[in-house]
Amino acid sequence: MKEKITHDDLLMAYAAGHLPAALALVVRTQLALSAEARRRYAFFAALGGALLETIEPEALRADAWERLERALARVEPAPPTTDKGGDPRVPPPLRPYVPHGFEQLPWRKYGPLYEVALPVGDGGFRTRLIRLRAGTGVPRHTHAGYELTLVIEGSFRDASGVHRRGDLVIADAEVEHAPMAEEDCLCLWVADAPLRLTGPLGWLLNPLVRI
Ligand code: ZN
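^ thats the input. predicted complex w/ zinc ion below
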């Protein structure tokens, strides 16, 4: 039976110190943005190691955890530089990667999407900042693996609703969506496999998808 990775799974694994660098960056950034995430994280942190050790092996045996489990063996490296305040628009966990503000990053345009890769140094995951202008969207797609999208600024809508600053959307092979920016939107995006376009021309466009 396939078990989905949930937001709480991520928070629990982070509390246990088990997340690979790319996923830990998503969790740290969300904790910087979302009081609700901080409340939930505090609950898991308070559970302590004993309970986590009790429940973890069962959870990790599920199919959905296999790739993550392999990744968990890796140790999260320290952020590359120290934080000296920086641009208040940039959540502190991202400042080592965005030292001079979002506008100064080497954004590259792919269709409607602007993106910049973050050198998180975790080969199993693609870690990007992505931007969409209001009213533009990502072509309809599903996922060969997991896709984590954390809203840093603005908002986007997909079939599961409207997602705003601090919201984390976890998508996998069972999710097909076409995210559309409601306002100019900037997100932290992590995936462990390429997207698969599924719209009418998806078969044609798939070789063009580079994110
Ligand atoms: Zn997606």
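Residues 60-65, 67-82, 201-211 have pLDDT under 50 and may be disordered.
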